[in-house]
Amino acid sequence: MATVPVDTEVEEQMTSQHGGKVGPLLTLVDDTGNSKFLFSILIIGDGYTKAEAVSVFVKEHCATLIKSINKQFKFKNRKLKIYAQPYWSKESGADIPKGCAHGFNVAHPKTYFDSGFSADCRLLAGTTTNTNSRIISHGRDAFRSVFPLSDSSENFAAILVLVNTPHYGGAFSDEEHTDICWAASSSCDSVGLALHELGHSMDLADEYDYWDGCEVNDGGATGTVFYSNVSSSAAQTPWNLKPPYPTDLRPKLECGQCDQRHEDGLEDGVGVFQGANHSPCGFFRPTRNCRMRNVAAPFCKVCRLHIRKFLT
Questions:
Q1: Which runs of E-coded beta strand occur in the chain?
Q2: End-to-end distance of the chain based on CA atoms, in angstroms?
Q3: By the 8 A CB rule, do 169 and 192 touch?
Q4: Three-state SS for 117?
Q5: Bridge partners of 30?
Q6: Domains and CATH numbers, the chain
Q7: pTM greater than 0.85 (yes/no)
Q8: pLDDT digit string, tens, across residues 172-222
Q9: Which one, of 155, 133, 137, lies nearest residue 146 by Cα?
Q10: Rounded to an integer, what distance in angstroms lies between the CA atom of residue 169 and that of residue 32?
Q11: Which of 3-17, 189-203, 245-259 is predicted most confidently?
């Protein structure tokens, strides 16, 4: 991961003085599938005032997202349960430091989980004193201390935190027993972003080259990866290749180069395409485009097959 500047702005830790729960855990979806194959998701919100906790978080943001979750992740014999726990915050929104306002107002609202953007503009949660510790500290320790799984008898497969901000961003924290996903709830493609982060909870890897197009360069990832949708070998991929298959015929990139090559004319379908795992070189993806590369795109054939196998 590239070295990024530390946000020097002092922000308050989450505290009960800044919010709390609004009512009991809500069951939004409880279908009739086989409970032996239960897939359970908990959705909670941050940065919603008391007035917004139900009217916006539950009735608007959760309702819109559930339609897509049902469409993408509901399969035969799989029982899907979706819960929501409304939280209220003293003020609406998320932390937006000076360095990543990008057309938005700098803000430091008092919210329960202190969700916001780090110095390199990634949507995370917790203190900004160390860029990489925000998602870790609240994903693993402080977050669990205020929302233990004992609040419900369910062992959630994934917890999705919707952050009430139009500023685009998402994150994923890989837990030992529960994955925690973070997504901006009011951004231009909030549903696609939430589904992308939930894709990580199903062991799908990022297929894009950089964190943010060519503006932030991770320097090129290295090593061997084991994912259904990303391969460190063009010759031996985990997905099934049936020749003749499409390949990326454009000139290859050196690690660290910004990928500005034109993609028009490339054939769609499952093949071998250079650029994935935050690197323009050394890693390959199965299709030209996919939700794991571009949140506005649908899941590709390889990812859809993986999700089906994962959930059944």
A1: 19-21, 26-30, 38-46, 79-85, 87-89, 115-117, 123-125, 158-163, 170-173, 179-184, 273-276, 279-285
A2: 34
A3: no
A4: strand
A5: 81
A6: 16-201 (3.40.390.10), 205-251+267-297 (no CATH)
A7: no
A8: 877 656 678 889 998 888 999 999 999 998 999 999 876 444 555 554 556
A9: 137
A10: 34
A11: 189-203
Q: Measured between alpha carbons, how far is residue 138 from residues 115, 158, 261, 267, 299 in Å?
A: 9, 15, 39, 43, 29
76 C-beta neighbours (distance < 10 Å), count: 9
Place of tokens 């922000």: 11
Query: What is the DSSP secondary structure assignment for residue 121, as one 8-state letter?
Result: -
Residue 39: DSSP 8-state: E
CB 124 within 8 A of CB 116: yes
Give 53-86 as a DSSP string.
IIIIIIIIIIHHHHHHHHHHH--TT-EEEEEEE-
Using CB atoms within 10 A of its CB, is residue 278 exposed (0-12), middle (13-18) or buried (19+)?
buried
In three-state secondary structure terms, 212 is strand
Query: Strand, coil or helix: what is 189?
Result: coil
Residue 293 CA to residue 295 CA, distance in Å, equals 7
* Residue 292 per-residue DSSP state: T
261 versus 302: which is more confidently predicted?
302
pLDDT digit string, tens, across residues 113-159: 888 887 667 776 554 444 444 444 444 444 555 555 444 445 678 88
Distances, alpha carbon 160 to alpha carbons 79, 157, 277, in Å: 18, 10, 22
